[in-house]
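Action item from last meeting closed. Structure (341 res):
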């Protein structure tokens, strides 16, 4: 009996051992299967090629040459644009009868929007707002834009063109329109300097750079209507460039000049009263084609108003401009600001 019991007990022990061994083997098998399944398969690796990200720092596994070209492009973008880019051509022949269809121009300049453009292959040195006081001169505007955009792009400046239009048919007040243009442009664009630009002047030389200076600069020193000469010594009308702070220090233009003329001479008086120097572009490059228009209603009070210029300056200007912005819209080649003054 005892031997039988022993042998039975022996059989039970060996059966238990078998179970444990089989369990262990199954466990190991399961573990190996799980490890096998969790390894990255070749198919998965092919599915996820190295990412081609814009930020090269986050790139993993890119090849060397690719990396070099990205680095080169990035370095170029970090480089300042040249002060005198080799894209300049110098003197330009302005054809006043040029075909200047706005839709064609828009198509030719897909990278201009809201009148803004900046170079894509270098870091522009200057950020310039160009404000064109405007009313009822579409043929002039078309010809001007036809030459101005390409010229500014050759100069590699970051610019935005604003056309500030006086609404209605009331008496023209260019000073108010320019001040309103300045205030609205400043809300939309973070510029360093502002250039007020008559709509009937087309630059003839791209060495006359639409950049920012450390003081006001009279750019249209030689308009064709004056035989390419500066008509008188205090002339600052036509195309005038101000550092932003200087324009504010001067309190902008006077709001009191109704009708044609005087607001530009008043500006010269303001600069003199503020002991602010200005420079004038040499006439060899400050050349502009004057687009022809009829006579306008001159302001009969302009001489008398000039006498009181200095007294008014502090409270008559951009700080106290009565106006309403009626609309602000994207005309692609320019930002259109319609103002009631
Ligand atoms: Mn004119």
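Sequence:
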């Amino acid at each position: 009996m005892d031997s039988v019991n022993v042998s039975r007990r022996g059989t039970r022990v060996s059966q238990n051992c078998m179970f444990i061994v089989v369990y262990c083997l199954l466990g190991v098998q399961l573990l190996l299967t799980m490890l096998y399944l969790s390894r990255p398969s070749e198919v998965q690796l092919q599915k996820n090629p190295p990412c081609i990200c814009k930020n090269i720092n986050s790139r993993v596994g890119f090849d060397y040459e690719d990396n070099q070209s990205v680095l080169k492009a990035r370095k170029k973008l970090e480089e300042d644009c040249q002060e005198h880019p080799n894209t300049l051509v110098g003197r330009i022949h302005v054809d006043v009868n040029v075909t200047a269809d706005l839709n064609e121009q828009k198509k030719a300049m897909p990278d201009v929007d809201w009148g803004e453009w900046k170079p894509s292959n270098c870091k522009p040195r200057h950020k310039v707002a160009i404000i064109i006081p405007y009313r009822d001169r579409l043929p002039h505007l078309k010809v001007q834009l036809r030459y101005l955009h390409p010229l500014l792009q050759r100069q590699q400046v970051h610019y935005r063109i604003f056309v500030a239009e006086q609404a209605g048919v009331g008496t023209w007040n260019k000073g108010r329109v320019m001040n309103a243009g300045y205030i609205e442009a400043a809300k939309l664009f973070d510029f360093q300097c502002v250039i007020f630009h008559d709509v009937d002047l087309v630059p003839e030389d791209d060495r006359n750079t639409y950049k920012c200076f450390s003081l006001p600069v009279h750019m249209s020193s030689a308009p064709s209507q004056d035989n390419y000469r500066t008509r008188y010594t205090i002339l600052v009308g036509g195309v005038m460039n101000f550092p932003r702070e200087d324009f504010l220090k001067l309190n902008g233009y006077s709001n009191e000049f109704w009708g044609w003329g005087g607001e530009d001479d008043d500006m010269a008086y303001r600069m003199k009263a503020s002991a602010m120097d200005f420079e004038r572009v040499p006439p060899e490059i400050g050349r502009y084609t004057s687009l022809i228009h009829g006579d306008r209603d001159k302001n009969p009070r302009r001489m008398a108003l000039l006498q009181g210029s200095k007294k008014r300056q502090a409270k008559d200007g951009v700080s106290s401009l009565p106006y309403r912005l009626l609309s602000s819209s994207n005309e692609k080649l320019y930002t259109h600001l319609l103002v009631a003054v």
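Note appended to the action item: The chain has one domain: 81-340.
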